[in-house]
Amino acid sequence: MKILYVINKSTDGGAVSTTRNRINAFRKRGIEAEVFFLSRGDGANMFKDIPHYYLKNVKDFQKRITNGGYDCIIFVYSLDYLKHVPSSYKGKKIYELRGWSKGVISQIRKKNISKSVDAIVCIAHHIVPLVRPYFKKGTPIFVDGNTIDPIFQYVEQSTRAWKESPKPKKDHSVIAFVGRVEMQKNWKEFISIFRIFAKKYPVEAWFLSNPKTSNGIEDLHRICEKKSIKL
């Protein structure tokens, strides 16, 4: 079996890293998988050992599918190139949602989308009833959560490249939130969980986020100040 993932950009975010992890898991089962990125991003290095390509134009996309021998094409987030899949392609077409947002709703409302995909993959069970009304009855919807791969590991402080990296107070543990600070990432629930732990244990709340792409940063600081949480 051979799969082609179609993804907007080779960023260093969750959608791309999860795809990488899934492909590595597929390989162990003898399943081939490749990636077609519509544009280049800062996460390209994660795919140095995985066949991946960058879009040149529509003809390039169609040629890759015609000659690739793919049994399945999985569109992650974006469905912009679904309409360009050659009519000669006989494999399955799948749409994968990694969340629920206005952008996702805009994608699945497009004309004939519901008739053009063979299945849906969601990141969580709560998305299933949200997406179901937009697709024809009988379209299978599968749930597959984030795939974890131990690409991160603890590095002794003496060997770290970042010598001035922060560290918790003595005898304190850290509960960290990693990702964009926005409603979709449910950071407010993280704060609620932290407050429960903080009542019983010496812990600190750390947010590892890019403020340029986190539209909830101001709300985060406001709520933490209100609840006397030091970041």
TrEMBL record:
It comes from the Bacteria. This is Glycosyltransferase subfamily 4-like N-terminal domain-containing protein. It comes from Oceanobacillus caeni.
